[in-house]
Amino acid sequence: xxxxxxxxxxPKLMDAELRAIDFSADYRLKxxxxxxxxxxxxxxxxxxxxxxxxxxxxxxxxxxxxxxxVANPGCxxxxxxxxxxxxxxxxxxxxxxxxxxxxxxxxxxxxDPKPEHHFPERHETFEAYSVGKHRHMVEIERTLxxxxxxRKCAVIFTPHLVPMERGILSTVYLKPIQPxxxxxxxxxFAEAYESEPFVRLRERLPRTNExxxxxxxDMSARVVKSRIIVLSAVDNMVKGAAGQAIQNMNVxxxxxxxxxxx
Amino acid sequence: xxxxxxxxxxPKLMDAELRAIDFSADYRLKxxxxxxxxxxxxxxxxxxxxxxxxxxxxxxxxxxxxxxxVANPGCxxxxxxxxxxxxxxxxxxxxxxxxxxxxxxxxxxxxDPKPEHHFPERHETFEAYSVGKHRHMVEIERTLxxxxxxRKCAVIFTPHLVPMERGILSTVYLKPIQPxxxxxxxxxFAEAYESEPFVRLRERLPRTNExxxxxxxDMSARVVKSRIIVLSAVDNMVKGAAGQAIQNMNVxxxxxxxxxxx
Amino acid sequence: xxxxxxxxxxPKLMDAELRAIDFSADYRLKxxxxxxxxxxxxxxxxxxxxxxxxxxxxxxxxxxxxxxxVANPGCxxxxxxxxxxxxxxxxxxxxxxxxxxxxxxxxxxxxDPKPEHHFPERHETFEAYSVGKHRHMVEIERTLxxxxxxRKCAVIFTPHLVPMERGILSTVYLKPIQPxxxxxxxxxFAEAYESEPFVRLRERLPRTNExxxxxxxDMSARVVKSRIIVLSAVDNMVKGAAGQAIQNMNVxxxxxxxxxxx
Amino acid sequence: xxxxxxxxxxPKLMDAELRAIDFSADYRLKxxxxxxxxxxxxxxxxxxxxxxxxxxxxxxxxxxxxxxxVANPGCxxxxxxxxxxxxxxxxxxxxxxxxxxxxxxxxxxxxDPKPEHHFPERHETFEAYSVGKHRHMVEIERTLxxxxxxRKCAVIFTPHLVPMERGILSTVYLKPIQPxxxxxxxxxFAEAYESEPFVRLRERLPRTNExxxxxxxDMSARVVKSRIIVLSAVDNMVKGAAGQAIQNMNVxxxxxxxxxxx
Lengths: 262, 262, 262, 262
What we know:
Largest interface: A-D, 45 and 45 residues
Number of strands of chain A: 10
Distance between the termini of chain A: 25 Å
Helix content of chain A: 25-40%
Structural class of chain A: alpha/beta
Strand content of chain A: 15-25%
Order of helices and strands of chain A: HEHHEHEHEHEHEEHEEEH
Oligomer: homotetramer
């Protein structure tokens, strides 16, 4: 939310030899140029930016365990990265042709009471916003990049607002490099997530209310014509925010990873 | 809404020999003392206050027709007065023991985006507010007073907020002076409203969505033990506001009363 | 829900010397005649009906502790009884002039998908139902009766449906026998509930979302003209149903009363 | 809705030299094999199927004017076809790489009260359904086919359910054959729809509540990396159903096309 604040305070915490989980976006993008471009600010704490670890335990558990500074991921990137990384890692999909079409409950828009989120304005409408301009687009790309050697990913990200309190569903369109079956896709996910306490692979399609108030990410896939479609659901305020921070804290301090979480 | 503004401008309109319908509460309460007490302001236009007509056509059609200044009623008082006046006028009920329990959609709270009406806060809750302190309580009482000779009415008014866009349902508890049948109650209403284009008496209970986006007031009654219960539904933004203003305008200008209204 | 089923099975459970908490209405009304009148069935297990205990721990904790059969209360009666009993017990209010105006989320209407609860029909409407005919009216009366020696209570009960998932708010209108201050009313409640883990007295008005997914009953009071108004909020599926059953089970088995409950 | 019924009755209407607008899907797919595959029924009225006209006035106004039988389009295909045809016709986009990601209010699921659309189940959730299997996928493809000479279109269609009463937003991902600017895309739409009374091109993104209860289709476009994104909003019950039928009727009978419509 209040990006730009954390990087003023983190140096003091690090100097005091404390460990921190940053809820803002200040330490999510490794490239200062990305930060400058998407957040309209010059990053003022490059030293700590360098060693900060992106806090998606399913991808970086070991580095989080020893990290001094963890950048807690954005809500949309959490739902998107979990749906894409295993397929990218398995070399199944084209990294330059990724479409992430997401929809979020209104709590994702923050706590400030804006006219467009006033109850009577919002109760009965659906819309896209920030198409091609949302900051989470670059966050998704940078999260995926390490999984394609020597290339960059290109993600088209379209967020929408759903008249509900909480929940994100991402519908991700991926282009297989070679024809692939849905069974194979699900097998790749099963191997990637078999030990994960918070990822649930499902045959049927995920629904946001089945992950509401939990730290789960529910996921399913379909193959339709020339595309793999992966659907993933998280609670934007739990796995997409505070719950994931607790999960990160558990990993950092070596306690049971599921402690305090449902 | 912006009470206190209209009374600054109405004198100029009246001086220019124009006619006006005031949407604010400035000319609804005949007693300057009531206005001072409930709106925390001294009324500055007593001359026009005196001849202003309360714009409930079902009660004051003839006076509205020739009025120069019409005070458009509040939303709750519209639903309450229509449910009570005929029974008071028929001498059936005790004027000192009236309970109006109302519930309104959130548009009734105005357009300003307040934290408590931010979508995620409001989507899944129900609550009462301003219990015993809402300004419409005195407006209802003053609207009823003329129908009991020489006495005052005492109304207990409890508004609630419903997580929907629009609509008011008032559940009105009235004490019959003598035992009465529901048939008799409905007969009194039928006689009072038989020529009214916008009051619909119903055997079944009214629902707010059946009057949504219309100028209708749907009404039904039950007799339960020691009370008559009258239920009335209006759209707070139509019969409870703009639609009623159009109805008043039609009456003032002698055009078809239903013109431009559904 | 499926009233009439439990009384076919409870005798077997009692014969087997088991203890039971009945979720249906079969053992809530002590008088077989009441059951016959309101549920259109002849009670077939009078023996167990006689020793069944009404499972409102705030009223009957000691009897529940040793009960073999507990009748878990209805959702509306829970919210109403907690709001009324202390004032009745203190002799402050008139037992024949009680109005309970309640509003419930749609889960209160059960799981069967009826046309009137189909999402598009329900999303934007508010209405009363079963006015003067709801079975919980007699359940409330019979729950209150023991607290007025030698007299009967008369309750007018008006339930409404709110387009939200869960929650009940009851707005209860009570007539003080002598003029009373709101401070005195709150003091009576404070004494009645000071040791209760699940009753929260509040100065500000209760909201259903503040008790959602909890076993709490939030309560506040106002005095307006000739009435005490008590507002109480519960989650109809927790304190109004399953949570209260767990609370009863805890009392019956002598474990911490709050175990497993929030 | 009740597909398979209309084709039993239409022959009689045609024999009686009447004209008809069919609300079902029976006459939308020109190929009997498509109908058999997607509706699991053998088409029994091939004679009338052949001359039936697909009732999208923006595409087939002249043929509708003289048609004896009009097949009123599905809700999703209306929103999709209007967003795609002009670009296909202009030769700007790849016909084999079209993704239509749509979201609909719950009225789109029909009037039958199913468990999954029971209010408490639906109020706070978002989900995709029938991914790659929805019958409107083939309807969209067949509607687009005539605009690519000698080739077939391939559409991936993913519908979602939004907890609101009405409205469809389609987010359409199209691959330009050559790099294109958003200005050029909007220019193509402007030329295609400049005389259309019910298509509104907008710079800002469309919202479903801005077309609710109207026959409008609001549309906007963006170019993001390798894709054109077109967003189109309709009311599924008006432009997506009954309103379009009225528009077709107006065209068929030569009255003002906007008569009776907002």
